[in-house]
């Protein structure tokens, strides 16, 4: 078997496995049940698996268009790249989308701002365009509101006013999930869809096209964060140049990490009745500081500088929530901040050619940052 054949089999096999895992995850979201048998719960079968394609096909289509946007643009710029690697992940207990995404690996040194820009912007804009189509279809083809009774027959006793009663007195281990609004999703919900058919926020996860489109916007926004070697970082680097980007990016990263951890710990958390509880809280606080330090460890070559930045961020978070206890960030972003700061990198590789972008590329670059604003949600998933 030739190396090329093995390569095609690897990429094709990963895609097929990811298609299966996203289909299973999509079916679990749609029907609110699992494929793994659990006592007291009816398991999903083949018929529900087939229905799961309503989620996996549009979602993977957007993901694939995104990655091949990078791939073909890299080829056009004579940069060697791999085909997309898809990462399947199905955990079998719900709360999974069946994949960790996909990526291509660049095999050449990219020597110019313009090439970084072209390759970086092609993926998000291509995927975003298809996401708009999926969202438009999803919001203009909503089933009648009574559809929710096929998922939750127990809601029928309340009728279409179930939202006032269904979520009261839920067990502690049951936390309904709502898709947090962003500007674009909110526009489709309020100006494209039939208001009578828009489901309750806690039930949108059962609508596969809405779920696929929303997740596409969420991942587009993450990719377009203008930090480091994310797609948004490549774009901003090309727009403003190396010197300015190398101090703008760490500032943006610090602001992102600050927001992510805002409210995780509050001064009032330490007002506990026993010494044991106090030391337990203090230990958790120390772990949080260590976690943030690891995220900031590559912001400077000087470890003391990284520690000072970490402690300054934590201290400022405590002051803000002491003055305004109602203000909270989104702790779900902390994991991404850690991966970004520790592994992906806050800074951008230098390029030999520092040529400025032409007018069309500058316009596209600022348009991509507008797309980021439209897709970004401060609280993307609300429990």
Automatic annotation (TrEMBL):
Q: Which UniProt keywords apply?
A: Hydrolase, Membrane, Protease, Transit peptide, Transmembrane, Transmembrane helix
Transmembrane region(s) = 12-31, 43-65, 85-104, 116-139, 207-225, 245-265, 277-296, 305-323, 329-347, 363-382
Location in or out of the cell: Membrane
What GO cellular component entries does it have? membrane
Q: Output one GO MF annotation.
A: peptidase activity
Which Pfam families does this UniProt record tie to the protein? Answer: Peptidase_M50 (PF02163)
Kindly report the protein's main subcellular placement as a broad class.
membrane
Its BP terms in the Gene Ontology are: proteolysis
Q: Where is the Peptidase M50 domain?
A: 55-243
Q: Which PANTHER family match?
A: ZINC METALLOPROTEASE EGY1, ZINC METALLOPROTEASE EGY1, CHLOROPLASTIC-RELATED
Name of the featured protein: Peptidase M50
In its UniProt entry, the species of origin is given as Spirosoma radiotolerans
